[in-house]
Request: fold
Amino acid sequence: MKKALVVDDSKAIRQIERKYLEELGFHVLEAENGEVALSILKEDPQIDLILLDWHMPVMNGYEFLKKMRENPAYSHIKVMMVTTENQQKSVIDAIMAGANEYLMKPFDKEMLETKIRYLFEGF
Reply:
């Protein structure tokens, strides 16, 4: 079973993403900011996918992504930014920092599933 980590400061968004991911067969962990997410990765580096919000307190998604990608032990992890941040520069910055995919909020299960299939199967 693949593992996913949902990183978002909104509990409601984490619950929605958890539900969708569990329906797709993922075991799901949650973090409310990048700092908590880094500590989860240290405990369990065998995560396959991270859904990452941009705007969070303590450590935002962009900062988390840069720190995570500095560690070669996490190079296998697919990261999808899931955010309302829609400026072209932000999308480019996220991809340059190591995001594999970008999904705009709001989204539905089908959109998320399509992006995940692309990440893991490359159709």
Q: What stands out?
A: The first strand starts at residue 3 and ends at 7. The chain has a mean pLDDT of 92.
